[in-house]
Amino acid sequence: MMPFLLAEFAAMEQRLPLYVCIVGSHEQQRIDRPLGYPCHQLFLSRSGSGTVRLEGSPAFSMTPGTVLLLPAGIPHEYFPSDGTEGWDLGFIGFDGPAARAILEPLSPFSRTPFAAVDFPGLWRQLEAVWHGISQNGEQAYWESSQQLYGLLLSVMKDRTAVRSPKKKIYPQEAASDALRTAVRFIHDHYQDRLVVSNIARAAGYSPQHFHRLFVRHYGVSPNQYLLQLRMRRSIQLFREQPGITVEQTAQRLGMETSYFIRLFKRFYGKTPKQYLKSE
């Protein structure tokens, strides 16, 4: 999970031809923008699913492994399609004098989601931009501009990639159905002591094949996905139940308190108590 970051450029936007405005990933909630967004946006849907409506176009869905490029100023709204399963959505907003020229060859692929051939690779590049921006220094913004350019080129390359006819391609929809079953199982039992073999059994795969398939689609292992989900749930518990203790939260998540504290600090850079004081 990459908590929302707003790039504070300190006039860097006057010097960079291409720059990051926002970047992050989270369990997406409803967003309604009747006037559109002031910068261009790239969305990467990692798990769950969402519905997107653009002005003047029919609604469409974003499922795991899909990518959407949305130019600035287009009125839109989007929200989770399934109220019982979180929609894990990565996003990056960008602008700059060079943005329009870069977007021009990508215009045939904008406004409509497409299934990425190398979704994990695109997600890793998104994470690299996030980590760079999180350093919040002038050098980080120069580097993030380079990384953003690389990410957009990768989207173009991915969209126009020609699959080799010699490579055996398995039906992606069938795999996605099984993985969605597995993700629902994780969301329903995240507070239990889950092991990969049980999740794989729910999806109808052997543990080894399931692990490979899960990483290929979501860019993280099943265990990493579970930990990310637990961390998101901990933030929700802190916000929805102000009086809840750290120990109670860990218990709700099915975790030992000391391990929960260490993991929380690894994810958010502060302990749960430090987080609560800053809210």
From TrEMBL:
<dbReference type="InterPro" id="IPR009057">
    <property type="entry name" value="Homeodomain-like_sf"/>
</dbReference>
<feature type="domain" description="HTH araC/xylS-type">
    <location>
        <begin position="180"/>
        <end position="278"/>
    </location>
</feature>
<dbReference type="GO" id="GO:0003700">
    <property type="term" value="F:DNA-binding transcription factor activity"/>
</dbReference>
<dbReference type="InterPro" id="IPR018060">
    <property type="entry name" value="HTH_AraC"/>
</dbReference>
<keyword id="KW-0804">Transcription</keyword>
<dbReference type="GO" id="GO:0043565">
    <property type="term" value="F:sequence-specific DNA binding"/>
</dbReference>
<dbReference type="Pfam" id="PF02311">
    <property type="entry name" value="AraC_binding"/>
</dbReference>
<dbReference type="Pfam" id="PF12833">
    <property type="entry name" value="HTH_18"/>
</dbReference>
<protein>
    <submittedName>
        <fullName>Helix-turn-helix transcriptional regulator</fullName>
    </submittedName>
</protein>
<keyword id="KW-0238">DNA-binding</keyword>
<keyword id="KW-0805">Transcription regulation</keyword>
<dbReference type="InterPro" id="IPR037923">
    <property type="entry name" value="HTH-like"/>
</dbReference>
<dbReference type="InterPro" id="IPR003313">
    <property type="entry name" value="AraC-bd"/>
</dbReference>
